[in-house]
Amino acid sequence: MSYHCCTMVVLLSALFILWGETGLCLEQEGEFHFKGDIRHFSVAYNTVYIATERRLYQLSHDLTLVQSLTQRGILIDPLSYNPQFNRVSETDMWNTTFSVNVLLPLVADENLITCGVFDSGCGYCEVLDLKNVSNVLYKEHIQVGSLWRSSASVSFLVNVETRTRTETYILAAVQQDRDKPSKASCPPVSHAVQLYNTNDKQMGQIFSFNTNEKVPGIQSVGDVEFVDGFQINSIIYLFSNLPSGDQNNKVRLLWLKDEKYKPQTLKSLRGATLSVSDGGRGCRLIASSVIPGGPPMLWIGVFSVDGGQTNTELVLFDISPDLSGGTDTDPDFCVECGNRDRPEPKTLRPEKVIFRQDFMTSVLAVRQKEWTVLFIGTGDGQLIKLSVDKNYQTMCPTVLYKTSDDRKVFSKLHLDQVDLKHVYVPFQNQINRVPVSKCSTYKTLQDCWSAQDPYCVWCGSKNSCTFEEDCQDSDWLSIPDDSQQNKMVSYKVAQDQTGQITLNIQMHVTVGKDASSNFACQFSPSSSERFEMKQLPPKFPHCTSILKDSTLPARGLPVTVKIRLGTTSVEERLNLLNCTNIRGPPTSVLCRKCIMAGCGWTANGCSWAKEGVGNDSVCQKMESWMNFSRPEISSITPSVVSFYGRNHAVLSGSNLSSVIGVRIQAAMDCTPQESPVWNNTGKHLTFHIPSAENKGVVKVCILLPDGSCHGSAKITYRSAPSCSNISPNSSWASGQRKITIQGSFLEFVEIIQHSGAPQEVTLSGNINYEPLQNLTYHSPAAGNTRGTFSSTLYLKVANKSLACSTGITYYPDPEFTTFASTKTGDDVRITIQKKADKLGMTKEELSVWGIHEEKLHPCIMTEKDTNEETEFFICEIQGTPITKFREIKIQYGDQKVTLNTSSNPYLLMLIFLLLIPCIIVGVVIFYQSKQKKLAAKMNKIMEDLELDIRNDIRQGFVDLQTEKADLMENVGAIPFLDYKHFASRTFFPESESLMKMCIRDIGQDAVKVQLDESYKGLSKLIQDQLFLTSMVHALEEQKSFTIKDKCAMASLLTVALHNNLSYLTEVMETLLKDLMQQNSNTQPKLLLRRTESIVEKLLTNWMSICLYGFLRETVGQHLFLMVSALTQQTAKGPVDCVTEKALYTLSEDWLLWQAPDFTSLKLKVLFAVGSDGEVSEPLEVGALSCDSIEQVKEKILSTFKAKFGFPYNTALRDVCIEFEKDGSFAPLEEVDSSSEVIGEVMMLNTLKHYKVPDGATIKVLSRKIHPPLSPQGSLKDDENFSGKYFHLIDPDVDEDQRKNPERKKLKLKEVHLTKLLSTKVAVHSYVENLFKSIWGMPHCKAPHAVKYFFDFLDAQADNMKITDPDVLHIWKTNSLPLRFWINILKNPQFVFDIEKTPNLDGCLSVIAQAFMDSFSLSEIQLGKHAPTNKLLYAKDIPKFKQEVRLYYKQIRDQPPITHSEFRDFLLEESKKHVNEFNEAAALKELFKFIRRYFTEIKEKLDQNGAPAELTEQLHEVKNLFDGLKSCSWD
């Protein structure tokens, strides 16, 4: 009995673990959701910081949660001088919230400054760790910024150059509102603009604004609302709105100049008024962004032209500061405010109104080549991209992201600083990371060019549309930088005075260097007549050809032009016409035909290109010559639609008879959409409103046959409808129940659909299309009138069906059983009984009539009553002489039911009373019988449970005692990777692009590449040790030079200097000595423990180069045998192919402790040969009954390769298998119609599912030769594979135990821990052999590199007077086992051509941990709660430690290697792999770092006393590379 109790406790504990607390945030790819509204957010290189109403979040650049900090807590003594604020958890009591008004990352000090206010207190500031916001470094109750939670204030960091250094201050510009009450207990913020300290070293300490001079800040004369601010070079820019009582508004710009001290900086105040319209009043600034790349200093602002939020414009200004006038003379702002006269400031006029769009809320400007790209957020949830050329001409706007509802975009946007390819778009309580471009979606050159996207180039080498930096060479082409064109290739036809005809082709593209240097054209006339064309030498972007025959055929001369740019070819087919022969009435149609033929249009008609206008804009101004009455538009119904469009819209007007279509034109004359018309009566016509990419207002005109467009109307595109609630949420199967949907934009819904219901519900009630938040309709009848089922509700808008988040449930129709009729005065009361159900029917949904002598008497519903089994509906028939009704009629929906009553109620009552005693006796007897059966059943269940657990434990013991090392039968040839692929994977484990870039293809490594002058210069430069060490030190001093950059730099140096390993070794030694000097006075034991510097990664690469021979010749075979043994041992037991957990593993995290019972099977496998049904000899393959079909295929192909030494000729995904049953073959598939389904999850089919017995015959077919009836690719290609399917681990859904009782057997993880030990026993000999091969001493000599480097470490320890032997042991362990061997042990795919599964990775991590424990000096005390990965090898570690100590001693006692011997060894290693690496690619990537930090490298060279020749050489290399870059632009 005690055992049963323990089992129940285990079950209850498991349930409590499952009932965990839900997470605070919902994360999806590219977005992050918050509980609470966003208040502020900022970006510091690779981290995003977001302050919400409740928490402060630290997210990685890809919006993965790193850390969060609650802002709720207990404020003690809020009215005292120094109140205490203590944070509490989300579930604890709290009395205040810290609302952040200032959020500033100070990257130089690695601090995050947050300031704000408490709910019931005053100002408060904290300094947080930039890398971990939960670490509070400093806090103070002080006011910085606004005192109010909601305020039009801004704050940002500014740098002021003093005589000795650069000081960073907080500039806080606080809204001034005279009508806003002040907090009595808090010091007032009397100044509009103040500068605050950011650290204690500044005068007055942190957060102080006091200095020796009494200039506390800038005051405003009237009310002011601040919008934005920033600093460029030495000028600070501050933007604000100045509201006034007459409903006018001034937008003001303030300039402050860095003047060495805070007072002088504030006194440098100058101002200007930004005038959008005449007079400069009435407009409000909403958001702004500076345009990078000045001078001139260009700035763009979102202005509300009507003072509200609806009518907004994007306006461009030149805000270059005017420093000619006096300072502190502004009439609205002052530092020393006296009574002197202050003149009106200068007025700045806009350069251009760039864009008009309603509800714009934010803007971000980015430079891309010669283009300015604007990212615009809107109040209805859109992120719009707008490209502007250098002449301020705009491209068509595109929508990068839009919400389905109207969610306002936050007023500030930021660019992802890591890749510069994503924009952070914040909404009320979520933030999205949106790509700046969709280049990869354009599949052809024409599509890529037509997108008119400055970010996209067509990469010739990849034959795809990519970002320019992703095109590794200069063989690309893109849109032109200087203008916008409608066609990529245009042509002009001209005739000179002699009658000679010239064809001029122009390419409207920008190209890379490789493309422009390989520019060629070919003209091919195709005609029955012979035409000769003389081609002139092409000069990009023009090609010219002269027709020797001056007479063109009347139908035209077809000419094919083939243009080559690099590896990209463009083919254009032209039809050359005689321009003077294009005649007819001067219409817009004839004009366009003339222009499209490459001719020119004049007042007299069509002429040759040089004689007229070649732009089709002249055609748009021409009137129609055809005899049409001018049509007019009076209305469009509906005129407001969702962005999915609308079917069957009606346009009304006059003279519509000749109209053939409706043209819908988006903003800025972009490509219009045209919709055909029907049902045209002359006054009304019908058309479909097409879907739109973005929300907003579009123009509408109507088309005539001659192509002209007349009339003017507008259509507004809004958000899509959505539903938040459905009431009631059920319907009876016959339908017609009144359902109400709550949501937004429901007026756009045209049709409602229910899944499982064949009928659609067409809506026609909202004729005026007024905004609807509640939509009522009648449910359609269910297709299946029996049973209960859930139905998804779809809102159909145009051609799009939108699913509601909540559905409804169909139940069988209500069942009315009987009724009673009672006379009450002049009325008759009818009481109707209905069986209780889940429909929740109300009395309003029921209509009842009493029937007497075939006449209907309406019954008015009065009340409803309910008990557990019956529902009672009561109604009254008023004012009737009839005393009793024996028949009634009931109607619900469109169903009618008739009830009759003929029984005597008193007789029924008497019978019921007599039956009560019998019923009670029967219930007692039945209850006692059920109790006995239940007790017996529970005892049987507990006995079965105990037996199962005993069997599991006994089986584990048997496995442990009978485990044999019989794993290796035939592993075949060891698939070693060649050296360059091994090295590239070791050098660049996290960058596949660099990995591929720095190695040369097969066939190229025998060819020596000659570097050009720029690469030769850089190669010579890095061969200078003074330059190289100075550059490394200069880069490592930079805060923005990340660890990822350091690793990349080290590996690029390794590739670039691979041909001179001796010099690389000298540089590494020099840098290591410098690193040791840095760590010598702190903690020398930490040296080389992590990869935090360039030299540490350099050492890893150096070890990989020098030990590759030893790895391949001595260690490689043992490593491969160990990996193969692990793989084979894992395959002996079940492996869940969804979670990839296995019964046999070394890692507890990857243990399949829920494994079902299984049996081993031997299968006879036949392979189909040819296409006539022949098969091969049978091959015996081992499998398990629980294997999925995909696993069976893998085992068949693996056995085939091991048997014959080569792989099967068909890939796994193209293989299908069949099972011989009853003389015929049936297909085996991962899933099919017979697959088991639990909830919404489907179980993968196994051999047990198909009842495949031991010794069964399996036939292998190729899909390409024998396509199956239902072709099925790999299910793992499905993105939601783990969510849709399960294999051996049950999904967490309810299941009827009676259907599958064996699945409910209790499984305990601890029972299966013996599987870890049995796996360890099986592979232990291979692990031991591997370890001994690593620290073994072939011929009593260590590898040259190990001996040489250990002697180097011994020498450095002597020089630094380090006598502690533990320090030397740790240095050697960190440099060899930790830095090299652990990398190899955990990543065998670096050495062999194999795949590493997650389970194998877990096993290798356990072995790697045991390997490192063998080198540890400390003794580890292990108890019963120690992790299993430590316990597995606990008894082996002491023996391994003895072997390691002997290994280190033998190396120390070995005779030293001379420098000449080691130099010869390095020279030999260099020669082995000459020309295998792409030195030019490595040098090119290295120069990117040099260009980025050119100034810092030059300063470091000067500090180190570098000769002038070296500095000149650096400048020369830079000029050569800059020349290459300028050539690529040309």
- Overall body shape: globular
Number of helices: 28
Strand content: 25-35%
Q: How do the strands of the widest beta sheet line up side by side?
A: 47-49-52-51-50-53-54-48
User: Which secondary-structure class do the elements indicate?
Assistant: alpha+beta
Please report the distance between the alpha carbons of the first and last residues: 88 Å
Strands, total number: 80
What is the mean pLDDT? Answer: 84
Helix content: 25-40%
**Residue ranges: pLDDT <50 for 5 or more in a row?**
1-27, 1002-1009, 1267-1272, 1293-1299, 1301-1306
Main sheet specs: 8 strands, mixed
CA-based gyration radius:
41 Å
Describe this structure in words.
It is a single chain. By secondary structure, the chain is of the alpha+beta class. It contains 28 helices and 80 strands. Strands 47-49-52-51-50-53-54-48 form an 8-stranded mixed β-sheet, with no helix packed on it. Strands 65-66-69-68-67-70-71 form a 7-stranded antiparallel β-sheet, with no helix packed on it. A 6-stranded antiparallel β-sheet has the order 8-7-9-10-11-12, with no helix packed on it. A hairpin with a 2-residue loop joins strand 77 and strand 78. The relative contact order is 0.04. Residues 1-27, 1002-1009, 1267-1272, 1293-1299 and 1301-1306 have low confidence and may be disordered.
